[in-house]
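Contributing new records

If you add data, match the layout below exactly. Sequence lines come first and carry their own label; structure lines follow with theirs. Keep one chain per record. Anything else will be rejected by the validation script.
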Amino acid sequence: METQLVKDAANMAFASASASASASASASERVHHSDQGSQYASESFRLLLEQEAIVQSMSRKGNCYDNALGESFWATVKTECFDNFRSGVPQTKAQAMTALFHYIELFYNRERLHSALDYRSPVQFEKDWTNQNFTDSVYT
């Protein structure tokens, strides 16, 4: 993977994040985590993160578990949302973004049951957690 591709993707993410950032989010809260690939360790990429006041975090050498959560999520997206591209890749960026939005926001977060959440959707888990903690804090 080329360094410029990673920098272009980062700049797109920065532009998107700044367009929707809340006023309460501080720059110190932003972290970029990656493996130790040469594109992420390059001086130009490190300077880009520094300019954006983003803390760089890299997995430890030989530790494949640092990125396991992210890798698992994207493997699930490729399998469930795009059927491992058996039907081909979306023809346009807009089609890909629409498919990802529908999958993540409408299915993955609201309907898909997650074994790590006691077979509840993330939305249901959050509601249950909020109700339990709100009720506990009011009556204790």
